[in-house]
Amino acid sequence: MRMSELQFDLIRREVAALQGKSAFYKKKYEGIDVGSLLSREDFEKLPFISKEDLRDAYPMGLAAVPQEQIVRIHSTSGTTGIPVVIPYTAKDVEDFAIIMERCLRYAGVTKEDIVHITPGYGLNSSGIGFQAGVERLGAMALPIGPGNTDKQLKMMMDVGSTAIGATASYALVLAEEIAKRGIRDKIKLRTGLIGSERCGQKMRERIRNELGIEYHELYGLTEIYGPGVAVSCKHDCGMHYWDDYFYAEIIDPVTGKVLPDGETGELVFTTLHKEGAPLIRYRTHDLTRIIPGDCPCGSRYPRIDTILGRTDDMVKIKGVGIFPGQVDCMLAEIPLASSEFRMVVDRDAGKDVCLLEVEIVPGADPEDAETILRRAFKQKMGIYVEVKAFPVGTLPRSEGKTKRVIDKREY
Ligand SMILES: [Zn+2]
After folding, report:
1. Quick one: pLDDT at residue 9?
2. Residues 282 and 332 in one domain
3. Over pLDDT 90: what percentage of the chain?
């Protein structure tokens, strides 16, 4: 996306100021004359910031303001090691609520709505970010958090939730439970902001139909405020992101070269207004593209496509790199296949073997489905895998993110 004059002006001033007030950037830009940042080309020479850089700054090394100006911190889960801590100033907290409110409006939420918030509260930025947006909009928050499906459904029926925020996996868990209990006619949900993981067309259709909601895809990451960075409108063709708050680039994940609009690569964000922890050229590891042209909804905000996967989700089987998102796209074209699948990768006599487990729609013949899926996989990915078909509801479900690849190989 071509950088606007206003964006460039904000970034230039921010970069110049940061070197003076942030130890993190002082070190990052050592030996670089950031004061002479005169063009977009100069900007593209600035080094990227990686998740490792943020981990190295643990606990408070990212702070670009004195501690008395920090009013809150959030943190990533740290499942892969040291957590990343993001400090927020009062203005950051307000901006976070503003962008989340915009997302809720794009999803059709109004003051009349009761919003069932299932993302986690606490250090995680999801629940609290959602809630701040709901309250700013003037709707009613039901801050239930994740888990305890019995209570979720009871409150949903008794209080009458009309909108929901959830991960795709948890939305599917709730949809299946509602069907199982035969309580669909007691559920008043009409719209949902569904996010934080890759979700294929089939899963999306199931959530939409089985929960009876408009499906709005929500994107965000704690490093950049939290949820609310981008959302899909009612036309469901990519997600609008707020270019008055972020500058987005798509890069080749291997070479780091900036790619033209329309090409798929790694999403890189630069924040335009963050005070507590501004990020310049932060590599998200999410694979997407900038969608050229205008959205039919008439919004002036540009769009990124549905997240295809993460650069680090790629699994190498028989020397071929495969993203779970590609398998999702393949299944979308096969009517016998339902939404859920996983790949179990192992090594047998020194060779990679992969078993693709897929749930198939009721009534479909498992043997037929296995043959079709085996052929399709070979055609799309170029390698043979074994396929096993299962009825809907067999594969494990998750309240967070569903694990699509089980890699049992020892290296
Ligand atoms: Zn739109």
Report:
1. 92
2. no
3. 80
